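INPUT
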Amino acid sequence: MKQDVTTSEIIDREYQAGFVTDIESEKIPAGLSEDVVRLISTKKNEPQWLLDWRLKAYRHWLTMTEPSWQNVHYPPIDYQSIVYYSAPKQKKGGPKSLAEVDPKLLETYEKLGVPLHERARLAGVAVDAVFDSVSVATTFRAKLEEVGVIFCSFSEAVQNHPELVKKWLGSVVPYTDNYFATLNSAVFSDGSFCYIPKGVRCPMELSTYFRINSANTGQFERTLIVAEEGAYVSYLEGCTAPIRDENQLHAAVVELVALDRAQIKYSTVQNWYPGDKNGKGGIYNFVTKRGKCQGQASKISWTQVETGSAITWKYPSCILQGDDSIGEFYSVAVTNNYQQADTGTKMIHIGKNTRSTIVSKGISAGHGQNTYRGLVKIGKNAENGRNYSQCDSLLVGDKCGAHTFPYIEVLNSSAQMEHEASTSKIGEDQIFYFQQRGISAEDAVSMIVNGFCKEVFKELPMEFAVEAQKLLGVSLEGSVG
Amino acid sequence: MLEVKDLHASVGGNKILRGVNLSVPAGEVHAIMGPNGSGKSTLAHVLAGRPGYEVTKGEVRYKGKDLLAMSPEERAREGVFLAFQYPVEISGVSNVYFLKAAANAIRKHRGQPELDAIDFLALVKEKAKVVDIDESLIKRPVNEGFSGGEKKRNEIFQMAVLDPALAILDETDSGLDIDALRIVAAGVNQLRSPERAMVLVTHYQRLLDYIVPDVVHVLLDGRIVKSGGKDLALELEKKGYEWLEAPAGSR
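OUTPUT
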C-alpha cells in the first residue's frame, strides 16, 4: 500500500508550483481585435480555412454576452487587458528535439515533477508540455508513431495533419457553443492533438502538462482527441501556474470523439494557482470539455481532481449518440479559503441502451463554495437509457458551502434513473476520536477526505492517484484549527 | 502512573469537577462510580484532553509528566487510551487503516520503527481474538453500521492493538446485553497487567461482577466522596447514592 505516504509532510507544504521561470518570451500587446486573431494565425503559419474559422468565431463572440447563471462571483473581466499570445523565445521553427529545448524550460518541468527527458520519464507515459501559449516538447513521439498513434501539439497537427484537424475541429464543441468556447475558438494558441487509428490500443498513457508562466497572459489551449473504431487511449492533463496577485484567465476547450467501440479515458489533475488565503489572485478556470460517443458501443470516461484555481467552472460532458454507448464522470472538487467551484457534467442520451454514471465528490473548507451542477437528458429515441448519479458533499468547518443542482430531463418512458446525494461534515467529535488514537487533526482530515474520494481516485492511473492524494493534502492545509 | 490533584473543570461555563483527587498506580484497576451528572464522563474526557473541557484548577501528573500540558494526540502517543462511551462513526476510513495509522503514530513517538502492512495484519489477527471480533468488522469503515455491542467491542480491540499504559473506559458496559458484556469484560481482563493502569467509569455495579476492581471511588457532585475496596460497589448497589449525599458546603 503506497497510500499512506506521510500525510503530515504533505500537509505542511504550500502551493509548490508557484515559482516563475525567468525566460525571455515573445508576447504580443494586450488586447483583442480581428488583427490580433490574424496575428496569432500568422505567427502559427496557419492555412486560410483555419483563419476563417477563427474569424467567424471572433465575430460571433462579439455578439455574445458573458453568462451569469453560474454560482460563482468575480469582478468583470477586462478582455482588452489580457495578452492573448505569449511564447518562450526559441530558435526559428521551434526545437527539433529535446536537445534543442531551452534548458530553463526543461528545468521548469523537472521542478514540477514532469521530467521531459524520456529516459527519466516514468515508463509508459508520453508528455506534451505546453508553456504559456505553445507546446515546447512532446516525448515518446517516435515510439507512438510505430503503432500509428499521432500525438503532437495542436500547431503541428495543423501543419502535418490538416485533413484530420479540419474534419474534427469544432465537431463536438462548435465555435458558437458558449462565450468562453467561442473566445477560445478565436484565439486558441496551442494544445494537444491525439489520433488513435482503427483498432489500436495506445501503448502508453498520454499526457499534457499545461503551465501558465507569463503575467497578464490568458491561456487558451485546445485539445482534440479522436479514437477511431475499436481504439483505446488513456489521457491525462495536469496544470499549474505561478503565484501572482492578479487573476488570470484560462479558457480551454477539449473535444473528444469516439467512434464504434472506441474508448477514451480522460483524467485531469487540475492544480492551477488557487489564490492566497484571502482570495487574492488565482486562475479563473473556465473550460469547455465535451466528448461525443459517436460510434455504437463506444465509451468516454472523464475523471477530474480539481484542487486549484480561484474559480473553477466546467462541465465535462458526454453526448451518447451511438447505441449502447457509455459515458462516465468521476469528480473530486475541492474549495478551500475563498475558492469557488461550479462543476459537474452533462450526459446527453441520444442512442438506444445508452448508459451513464456520475460520481461527484465536493469538498468545501474555509470560505470555499462548491456547487455541483449536472444535467442528465434522455432523448425521445433513447430507449432503455440508464443513469446513475451520486453527489456527495463534505464540509470542513462552518464557513463554507455546498450546493447541488441536478437537472433531469426524460423524454422516453423506458429510462431508468437513479440519484443519490449526501452531505456530511467532518465533526469535531470525529477529529477528537482520531487524536485520542494518536493521529493529528490534520492527518485525520486527510484520512477522512481521502476515504471520501476513494471511489474517484480508483479511476485514476496509479501514479496520478498518488499525486492527487498529495494535492488534496496541500489544498486542505490549514483547514482545521 | 496517574496522579490527579484538586482538579476543577468546566464545560460550557458549568462547573462540573470541583476538586477531584485520585491516584492510580500501575497494575491496578480503579472503578469510578456515581449517579448521572456527577462528572464521571467529564473526568474521562478531561484526562483525554477533549476540546471544550476547560480545566480551571488543579494538576494531573501522568508518569511524572504534566498531562494537562499535552495535546490530545500527544497524550495518546504517551499511552493514554480512552474507550469512548459513544464511539464515533467514520465513513470511508477502514478500521484496519485507521488503527495502523494510530499504531504507527504511537510507535514513531516511541522511536520504534513503523509496522508494515504484513506485520500489522499479524498483530491485528492476534489481538482480534482478545474480544472475539469478527474480521469483517475490522475491514469495514470505523464503527459505521456497527451495533452498539460491536462498537464497544471495537474499542476494546483498539485498546488491545494500541497497548496503552493508562486505559480509561467510559461506560463501556452501557448498551451491552449480558453476553456482549461478558465478552468485553473478558477482553479487558486479559489486558490487565502489572504495567498497565485502568480506570473504569461506570454507572452500574454490574460491570464490576466481571471486572473486579482493586479500588472503587464514588464521584458525587464533582468530587470523590468515598473510596474503598470492591465491596463498596456492592454496598452502593444495595443502598444507592443518597446515603453519601455531599456534605454541607460542597455546592
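end of record. Chain B touches chain A through 35 residues (CB under 8 Å).
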